[in-house]
Amino acid sequence: MADKTFRVDVVSPDQMLYSGDATFLRAQTTDGEVGILASHAPLFSELAPGGCVVVTMADGTKLAVAAQGGFLNVTGTDVKVLAESAQLADEIDLAAERAALEAAEEGTAAYLQARSRIRAVEAVS
């Protein structure tokens, strides 16, 4: 099983959101949604506005992060998610974010942030 895992670090400027082993990582990038498994080819991509990152940890549990801006860096042995700002799904008030999404104009920063947070919560619901 150990050869099927890889190291993942999810960070924002103000905090380390996750650091540990994973079996799978899914992220929305500006090039489309990508899935990462152990030994994935090197990749560097920009995270999509309004997207999220979902990490399947080595024990099978999922961790979702609403990430606004930043980059995904994949090497042969590890993955780094470098977000401009990020929030864990379990810290998000889904009702408040749905209200914010409806109140915001499509394409604005507020709209994209709410959409990102809703996606993160729904990814682990």
From TrEMBL:
Keyword Membrane carried by entry: yes
SUPFAM superfamilies per record: Epsilon subunit of F1F0-ATP synthase N-terminal domain
Domain (ATP synthase F1 complex delta/epsilon subunit N-terminal) ranges: 6-86
Primary residence: membrane
Subcellular location: Cell membrane
Membrane topology value: Peripheral membrane protein
Keywords: ATP synthesis, Cell membrane, CF(1), Hydrogen ion transport, Ion transport, Membrane, Transport
Keyword Membrane (UniProt): yes
UniProt function note: Produces ATP from ADP in the presence of a proton gradient across the membrane.
Assigned protein family: Belongs to the ATPase epsilon chain family.
Subunit-level organization: F-type ATPases have 2 components, CF(1) - the catalytic core - and CF(0) - the membrane proton channel. CF(1) has five subunits: alpha(3), beta(3), gamma(1), delta(1), epsilon(1). CF(0) has three main subunits: a, b and c.
Protein name: ATP synthase epsilon chain
Highest classification ranks of the organism: Bacteria, Bacillati, Actinomycetota, Actinomycetes, Mycobacteriales
